[in-house]
Design a protein that fits this description.
CATH architecture of the largest domain: Sandwich
Strand content: over 45%
Largest sheet: 7 strands, antiparallel
CATH topology of the largest domain: Jelly Rolls
Distance between the termini: 69 Å
Number of domains: 5
Radius of gyration: 29 Å
């Protein structure tokens, strides 16, 4: 059991310890033209951000070193995803050295300590490191790709599309066969699980015959999850794998080649969400007793879950359903699956497992891909455990020994004909009793949230709870570092729907990620899926007029909620010379301010919220 220590600082904006919010004003673009080149601007203010177009696998330095004021720097993707942060790398100034894990735009957010704006010029320099040629394609450093070893795996995330190469990669003795054999040098990527189905794809994006393997764990202790060599429908013998990636688990993606082939590729990452329908393994149905039941499926669900590791005699899902069962006594399991019309149904069974694994990560215990249009199933004396299309549709019964009691089996039933025809399923159990109470300790019906004017509101509901101690609500700004913001007692054991609501009034600006940690009475725990809520008050200065001005300044301010704020007029040194308190209402607000007593010069007009953060800035000249 893991031990987790949580330290909460009440009454403070927790996110300030790790980064500044992504709410600054765009200033300019500082994209270097080529490797080895730099771009600089000598008048970047706190409260500005600049954009930089980066290339996956390339290294960049963002530096405020030498600036006269105490700076802070935060790096974000253009979609608001946090990437990196630095406060005092060089004396009181900031610098970030960073290797891009994607190609696209980043925002370099500059603030004066502590996450504030100012009106003093500082120099920001963006440098693109000079690439070192290793003889073949993107990502090369020295004699081989930068991610040649597992320890140097390049992190990737949902929505990423990264260019890579296996040219000049070296053999990896630590990589074990996983669905497909390790036959050529390869390179490594890492992915942090998010309780979603994730597709890692080379489909149509390689110039050589590729393979892909997915592992979980650590570089020193890997567990095979999935693998593929030549995905159906992909050109040029390219590969693709979809698997369910659990939160709190690191996954390693190994890209290699068939035979000894190497070359260039593009690896894309697509996250599909979490599925609770029986067409996907995560939504599998518990079946028990020896009663006859019927079933039907209209699709393969959210994603294809069969791959070279687990498909066995099958190919892909057509119209499929997933089931779980667990014997609590030894004996023999037989069944008959009968289509209501004469069509082709296939099935596979995996296990026995200590716990349910979705999707399965090994070959099936039983599998039939018979092309016969007639009943299929398990039968004593069938004599085989797996069948090709030429088989008779029947495979050997499952014998449950004492060591198999209370373990779990996973079953896939697939309508190969894909014509929506239903079927009936009839058990024939000898000595075996199946566990009808087989279910997760807590069955989540929903987990969602919404952004309200003064707080983020989180809602979840459970269909049932078994030995549930409590829930821990966790929040993160980057889906890497999580903090507990609330403890909610569970209901123990109940078989009815229960609803929960938690408020987060201390939310930071930007995107917050939330998940629910459910803890059993015995200390075991599991996580819900992760949701994201973006809090952006959207206070915007639409116009200041007249500008320049002699007596008064009119301000048109857009707001999306009621809020009392301060408006300040600041010298370029950062000194406040005049301040007003105003009440904003949703929509466009028009205010007139008398600044006739202010001396001639250049000022900044700032809006400061109730926690002292600068949320909007414009320049103003007083005649």
């Amino acid at each position: 059991m893991k031990s987790i220590s949580v330290l909460l600082f009440l009454g403070a904006s927790v996110h300030l310890a790790a980064q500044c919010p992504n709410n600054n004003s765009f200033y300019t673009d500082l994209t270097p033209s080529a490797p080895g080149e730099s771009e600089s601007d000598n008048c970047v203010w706190g409260g500005d951000y600049v954009t930089v177009d980066v290339v996956s696998g390339e290294s960049y330095t963002f530096s405020m070193c030498g600036t006269s004021w105490d700076s802070m720097m935060t790096l974000y993707k253009d979609d608001g995803t946090f990437l990196a942060f630095n406060d005092d790398e060089c004396d009181w100034q900031s610098e970030i050295e960073w290797t891009a894990t994607f190609s696209g735009e980043v925002h370099v957010v500059i603030d004066k300590y502590y996450c504030n704006s100012n009106s003093s010029c500082g120099t920001l320099t963006v440098s693109w490191a000079d690439s070192v040629s290793g003889g073949g394609g993107p990502g090369i450093s020295g004699s081989g790709p930068a991610n040649d070893d597992c320890a140097d795996a390049i992190p990737i995330d949902c929505g990423d599309s990264v260019d890579g190469t296996t040219t000049n990669a070296t053999d990896d003795d630590d990589a074990e066969d996983c669905g497909v054999s390790i036959s050529a040098p390869g390179v490594w990527y890492s992915f942090e699980g998010n309780d979603e189905y994730v597709t890692f794809s080379l489909c149509d994006e390689t110039d050589y015959d590729s393979k892909i393997n997915i592992y979980s764990g650590t570089c020193d202790d890997m567990y095979c999850r999935a693998g593929n060599d030549d995905q159906y429908g992909c050109s040029n013998y390219s590969s693709e794998v979809t698997t369910l990636c659990y939160s709190g688990t690191t996954y390693f993606i190994f890209v290699q080649g068939y035979g000894n082939e190497t070359g260039d590729f593009t690896l894309s990452v697509e996250c599909h969400g979490y599925s609770d329908v029986p067409q996907d393994c995560s939504g599998g149905i518990t079946i028990c007793d020896d009663n006859t039941f019927g079933g039907n499926a209209a699709s393969y669900g959210l994603v294809q879950e069969l791959n070279d590791v687990n498909r066995g005699c099958l190919t892909v899902e057509h119209q499929s359903q997933w089931f779980f069962f667990s014997p609590i006594t030894p004996g023999t399991i037989e069944f008959e699956l009968s289509p209501t019309n004469g069509i082709d149904y296939d099935f596979a069974i995996w296990g026995p497992y200590e716990s349910i694994t979705c999707p399965p990560t090994e070959s099936p215990l039983r599998c039939t891909y018979s092309a016969l249009y007639e009943p299929t199933g398990l039968s004593l004396g069938a004599g085989d455990s797996s069948e090709p299309p030429s088989g008779d549709a029947w495979v050997e019964a499952i014998t449950v020994n004492n060591d198999d009691v209370d373990k779990y089996y996973v079953m896939l039933i697939d309508n190969w004909t894909a014509d929506n025809t239903a079927y009936s399923f009839e058990w024939n159990l000898t000595g075996v009793i199946l566990n009808c109470a087989l279910q997760l300790p807590v069955e989540f019906l929903e987990f969602s949230g919404k952004v309200l004017p003064q707080r983020n509101e989180l809602y979840w509901a459970t269909a049932s709870e078994i030995n549930n101690s409590h829930f821990e609500v966790e929040r993160s700004m980057d889906m890497i570092d999580w903090e507990v913001i609330s403890f909610i007692p569970g209901m123990g054991t109940v078989y009815q729907e229960t609803e929960y609501i938690v408020n987060d009034p201390n939310r930071p600006f930007g995107v917050c990620y939330y998940r629910i940690k459910q803890v059993d009475n015995n200390g075991e725990f599991s996580y819900s899926h992760t949701i994201a809520l973006e809090f952006n008050p959207m206070i915007e200065i639409l116009s200041l007029f007249p500008n320049p001005t002699r007596q008064v300044i009119n301000a048109s301010i857009q707001a999306n909620e009621s809020e009392e704020v301060n408006v300040g007029l600041y010298e370029l040194t950062g000194r406040l010379v005049q301040e007003f308190s105003i009440q904003l209402e949703p929509g466009v607000n028009l205010f007139t301010f008398d600044i006739s007593e202010v001396e001639q010069g250049l000022y900044t007009f700032r809006i400061i919220n109730d926690i002292g953060q600068n949320v909007a800035t414009e320049r103003l000249f007083k005649k």
